[in-house]
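Collaborator request log, item 7. Partner lab (contact: R.S.) asked for a structural prediction of CBS domain-containing protein to inform their binding assays.
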Amino acid sequence: MVAATRVFAARMTGLPVFGPDGEPIGRVRDVVAGLSIGRRPPRVLGVVVELPTRRRIFVPMLRVTRIEPNAVTLATGSVNLRQFHQRPNELLVLGQLLDARVSIDPEGTPAVLVDVAMEQTRTRDWQLIKLAVRERTGRLGRRGQTRVLDWDQVTGLEFAEVTGRPQGVHQLLAMFDTMRAVDVASTLHDLPSKRRYEIAEALDDERLADVVEELPEDDQKDLLHRLDDERAADVLEAMNPDDAADLLAELSEVDKERLLGLMAPEESAPVKRLLEYSSDTAGGLMTTEPIVVGPDATIAEALALVRNPDLPVALASLVFVCRPPSATPTGRYLGCVHIQRLLREPPSTLVAGALDADLTSLSPQTPLTEVTRYFAAYNLVCGPVLDDEEHLIGAVTVDDVLDHLLPEGWRESGLPETEPDHQTNREAR
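Returned to partner:
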């Protein structure tokens, strides 16, 4: 396949990046361009690549040998693992240019930038040469004509205008539709604050809640303070209760009580219960929304609950069997059924016949160190938390345990690299 000499930047997002021998390195998340002088096309400096560990690094364009419709190939498998940080003289093409409001010369027709084409010059440099813009008609529900123009045929892309003027988010949201919440969170973390706030305002409550759960703590608090109180309360309601409790615990008492008061009582009640426990105990780690069925439920009914695509994988590994009520705190806890057992039993069988009543449970006061030993000893990814009266009040999952065991700030920097192919020399940009 012949490598492209003109590439539209929006089509590069998510493309896998490979070394010369086909070794996978990561995925493209953005294109970095230098600031242009006057109305000259900017030079493309490189691409932002997200490694499997979620760390984002900068790869210079001189390292890129081929850009194909389905992949990007580098000249070497050795890359600089230093975390990418945008410099003052740089622009993120996808993060900062898309959806910018511009004018088409010479008539001054208002338009929106929907994509940017980069081309390789005779000197093997890449430049942002062409702009795909959609005319703004002003007619509700009507889409204007899309035109591909030279860089100097469009005004409104000077640095001060791009970074200071409000932008739309339609193109970025379209890209986010195909990305996991954790990848969207990683993208938001690397964007300038202005763009981060614009995107947060445009996301619906459910999607924003999923993304906020994956953001570093400082970004979570920053976004929550930027939202109006009613919207912030709605987002907290859409979050998992344990994640909402963790976030609220980092706020001042005044802010915490105000937001809890704005939440619906049925949504704030489990969050308030979780806030009563220390964050390094089973009570502080647990979620209050495990899968719970009665002893007269069938295997088929339990499996139907496990199949919920929105259910975290770890939480789907155990179905808890309790006397009514089924909402936490439940009636008396009877035991649990492991998903592997559910898959082996006839669908019409009652879950009571497949019960594991001998699995040791956790108390809400169990410290993190004991919770860790519990998961290791029983080879579990999910475990029940009971109160003194044998009521199920929640479940701890292994991902929540890992969140508290990993070093502070791990979400910002990703996990340490262990693959020798990717350890390398520093390279100037």
